[in-house]
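[Meeting: bench + compute handoff]

Bench side (C.D.) handed over the final construct sequence. Compute side (W.E.) agreed to return the predicted structure before the next meeting so the bench team could plan truncations. Sequence as handed over:
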Amino acid sequence: MKLVTAIIKPFKLQEVREALIASGIEGLTISEVKGYGRQKGHTEMYRGAEYTVDTLPKMKVEVITKDENLAIVIETITSAAGTGKIGDGKIFVTSLDEVIRIRTGETGNEAV
């Protein structure tokens, strides 16, 4: 099993969610996060004063998937979240040792 973590632009969240559902991916976790990569933030104007915003709002989407579905999840997120511009985000893939469903005690792929 794999944990796929994608950091994406907030306005792309709905597209990514709908694309994952259409691909047959059933569960995901969404979090609002802030951070920066190569962008290093940006400057804004507020009441005539310029200030620097060091962190940018992003969305973190986490999906647990079977190994055989990993390529589908990555391709779906990449195509739905991509704009071709800087700041599109990143995808991280992590191996999971164990997954346990709390309600039933099921483990492994049955818990997903």
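W.E. noted at the follow-up: The CA atoms of residues 82 and 88 lie 6 Å apart. C.D. will use this when planning the next construct.
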